[in-house]
Amino acid sequence: MLSAVMKKKVLSFGAHPDDIEMGCGGTEALLAGKGHEVYHVVATSGEAGSRTIPKDELGRIREAEAQESAQVIGARVMAFLGYPDGLTSFTREMKIDLIKLIRSLRPDIVFVHASHENFTDHKIVHEWVLSALKGAGGPWFQEAEGDPWSPESVFGYEVWQPLERYGLAVDISDTIELKIEALKRHRSQISASAYDEAFKGLARYRGVMSGAGDYAEVFEVIRISGF
Fold it and tell me: pLDDT tens digits, residue range 57-97?
């Protein structure tokens, strides 16, 4: 997969505190296990994710769960951006925020929601991140500071809408249990919907049908080099 010698920085974006683990947690665990640095950036605190827990309380709960979950797979949360759960658009100021972050961390590999997502929050984050990546790579947006930076590879992961077509399948047989354990740390959400079981089933399906291994994650290839 990636060279064990050349260490990479991996940056994953998610709309909500559990999206990243659902979409690429197994692959992240593989990369972290090889010594690569893995970071999460979460757009919202997922405070709209319950009908019974007050929003402020739920936001704090879900941020704590995300920290636990990231530790399980060997990642760390770089930032909770704190935008309201239920994104319907992004602003120029939000784009500048991401450009600053990208230029500061200088990631080699980026994971983000795939372009096909019809869940609005996920679709907005996909468009927002790709717009920021383009902006971060050019000589524009002086207020963002930092030198221009473009990652080598960018991949779109699947969450609620499985990809109809994918360009990369990654064997996560060795890390599937870490992925599931990470998902179980999102207790406020698992208690209402056993999606840990659903994503283990999806990984099994992807592994068998792609031929990658017993379990796999698949990705939309947006940009690729050296992966």
Answer: 999 999 999 999 999 999 999 999 999 999 999 999 999 99
What is the CATH code for 9-223?
Answer: 3.40.50.10320
pLDDT in tens, 98-149: 999 999 999 999 999 999 998 999 999 999 999 999 999 999 999 998 999 9
Per-residue burial over 168-184, b = 16 or more CB atoms within 10 Å of its CB, e = otherwise: bbbbbbebbebbbbbbb
Q: Which of 218, 207, 113 is nearest to 159 (CA)?
A: 113
In three-state secondary structure terms, 185 is coil
Sign of CA dihedral 57, 58, 61, 63: negative
Written as one string, the DSSP assignment of 144-176 is G-S-----SEEEEE-SSS--SS-SEEEE-TTTH
Which among 40, 131, 55 has a CA at the least distance from the CA of 86? 55
Q: What is the pTM of this model?
A: 0.94
Residues 6+ apart with CB under 8 A from 216: 169, 170, 171, 172, 173, 203, 206, 207, 210
Extents of the domains making up the chain:
9-223
Say how far apart CA 81 and CA 114 lie, in whole Å.
20
